[in-house]
Amino acid sequence: MAQVTAALVKELRDKTGAGMMDCKKALSETAGSMDEAVDWLRKNGLAAAAKKSGRVASEGLVAVHAEGAEGAVVEVNAETDFVSRNETFQAFAEQVAKIARTAKGDVDAVKKAAFPGSGRSVADELTHNIATIGENMNLRRAAYLKVPQGVVASYMHNALKPGLGKIGVLVALESAAPAGKLADLGRQLAMHIAAARPEWLSTAEVDPAAIERERAILTDQAAGSGKPPEIVAKMVDGRLRKFYQEVVLLEQTFVMDNETRIAKVIEKASKDLGAPVEIAGFVRFQLGDGIEKEAADFAAEVASLTR
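Given the sequence above, the corresponding structure tokens read:
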């Protein structure tokens, strides 16, 4: 029997797209024969993953896992919304979020980590699920937050089950205040972030290029008013403040009462809880953000089959 070397396993994996452990087993079962190993994988439905890898995966699930002063959020994609209701896919996303917390949000580290109870890595378990469920899938991104003292709170909008849904948020609150009360505040802030979609925490963090781009647009708009240059400058400054109120978390109006700035919410919480409270960071993952989805034209697809 031929020795199953790492090079053979890699060659088979490159040919079929199957998981590393599946390739190793296929070669062991077929005495190291590459052709027979490919056939073995095909017969067991494990070589199908490669054929699916080119298809757009923009559906799926966002999963969050927060515990104490740290938390992680991940996005795991599939081709159709139907798969998000598959129990195997849900269990995979849940485990990946837990692993991401341990791996501190490093996607490469998550993919290399062992997937519990499978004998495979996360990457190989994903490949296995592609073959088993029959859709292209992808672990697209992960993020991690931690504070030295305080809590990392989470919120999942329209959750399919706890910690799984389409919009997941983490908020890190640094404070010596009681953890339970901080968690309540953090959840409310996370709900606000899910709805208001801030891009930056503070005005100091706003990308200078974004400010200049916005200022240029506002200047062009204000110049059309025919006002003197000094009035135009004041108009631009006023509209730039409105821009900050739309995209900066601390400048936004709290959705819970539609009148209080988030900065004031934090200031009041610090007084009520008897200890300074600071938002150390936040993450908002919305499923499919930034993925170009193919526009399906069913009629055209059917017509092409009749030519």
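Strands lie at 59-67, 70-78, 114-115, 120-121, 137-146, 150-157, 164-165, 167-174, 278-286. Try to locate this feature in the token string yourself.
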